[in-house]
Amino acid sequence: MTVAAVIVAAGRGTRMGAGVPKQYRRLGGQMILTRTIRAVLAARSVDLVRVAIGGDARESYRQAVAGIDDPRLLAPVTGGDSRATSVRAALVSLEANAPDRVLIHDAARPFVPAGLVEALAAAGDAAIPAEPVVDALWRGTDGHADVPVPRDGLWRAQTPQAFPFAAILAAHRARTDAPAALDDAEIFRCAGHPVTLVAGAPGNFKITTEADLARAERIVARETRMEYRTGQGFDVHRFRDGDGVWLCGVRVPHRRALEGHSDADVGLHALADAIYGALAEGDIGRHFPPSDPRWRGAASHIFLSHAAGLVGARGGRIVNADLTLLAEAPRIAPHAPAMQARIAEILGIPADRISVKATTMEHMGFVGREEGIGCLATATVALPAAS
Ligand code: MG
User: Fold this and answer.
1) How far is the CA of 319 from the centre of ligand 1 (A)?
2) Percentage of the chain surpassing pLDDT 70?
3) Among 226, 158, 164, which residue's Cα sits nearest to residue 193?
4) Which residues contact 365 (CB under 8 A, 6 or more apart)?
5) How far is the CA of 345 from the centre of ligand 1 (A)?
6) 258 C-alpha vs ligand 1 centroid, how far in Å?
7) Residues 372/366, Cβ–Cβ less than 8 Å
8) Which of 156, 251, 257, 320 could bridge to 353 as Cys pair (CB 3.0-4.6 Å)?
9) What spacing in Å lies between the alpha carbon of 295 and ligand 1's midpoint?
10) Is the pLDDT confidence value at 51 over 60?
11) pLDDT band at residue 140, thresholds of 50, 70 and 90?
12) CB 324 within 8 A of CB 317
């Protein structure tokens, strides 16, 4: 018996407001869709996975599956305006190599347990996971509890919903008003077939609102043991003729400029090296070789963004950063708040996690002789523990 899974990721997730559809929002550093696909693939009885995506979501999808190397994951199919048309497009795409069973799953249910997927794959006929309603139910009128609704016999449906493939495809094709249908179980029942209720999983909730996302974040944080790593960076650039310096992403007027292959921003260089250091990923020179003409005159925020991107790619986050500029002149203090804000913006973290301070060298050494500017930086990152 072959079992396919269809994951419906074509919706816009409008209840979470404008912007990124919820399935592409990040949860503990990973896209929700990435977690959902991995959760379904964790069931060994699933032979194929087809994801239905929005027509404008190709790039987001590519990012979502970039780290998934599993031959069971097929290329995505473009869905439609409604859940039903998206499911139908995915089912039609599987028809040439029709599986025996298909499990249809919401992209926004990343916590589906592999055991539930296995149980639905093995269930004989059409089956949907559901939990009995335990709260009192009321029909409200104008903000008042009006009519009590008996909860006996009421169930809250989850996904995946499991069906014999040929029969659910035929049911979808027979249903011309499918966009109004509640879910695939309803479409199947309207074609005259019974649907069995099986026990759902309490944690298999659908991320619909910001409150759901916050709950999901708490669950992921509990499941993911983090470890903390600190790196340090140091950089120096020599003065040359000019009328200003770039320090921590801020242009500071000065009677000199700094010499360097890029914009010579010692602050951002030291900080990028601190983050690379925390990751044991070498330094800027390893990722952006000075011999490469592409980085001549480059704005240094690209180095810092790259370092921060490596943290995100590992499911980590930057906890804090602390920088000390070593400069006799120009005076740094008036510019420190702008530098703090700019670094926070590049890293995408709150400004109260960034510290920028400065010291002179009491006229001693190369800084004291105003031959150049240096910077010391430390950064702490939280990363999912390796084991
Ligand atoms: Mg440098």
Assistant:
1) 23
2) 96
3) 164
4) none
5) 20
6) 10
7) yes
8) 320
9) 12
10) yes
11) very high
12) no
Structure tokens at 103: 């499990």
On the CB side of 295, CA atoms within 13 Å amount to: 18
The DSSP string of 53-101 is: E-TT-HHHHHHHHTT---TTBPPPEE--SSHHHHHHHHHHHHGGG--SE
Closest CA to 322 of 301, 353, 295: 353
Give the residue from 288, 265, 130 showing the smallest Cα distance to 197: 130
> Tokens standing for 266?
């010692």
User: How many angstroms separate the alpha carbon of residue 237 from the centre of ligand 1?
Assistant: 6
The pTM for the full model equals 0.62
Identify residues whose C-beta is under 5 A from ligand 1, the ion.
235, 269
> What is the chain's length?
387
**How many angstroms is it from 210 CA to the middle of ligand 1?**
41
Six token digits for residue 80? 């439609």
Q: Name residues whose C-beta falls within 8 Å of residue 144's C-beta, 6 or more positions apart in sequence.
A: none
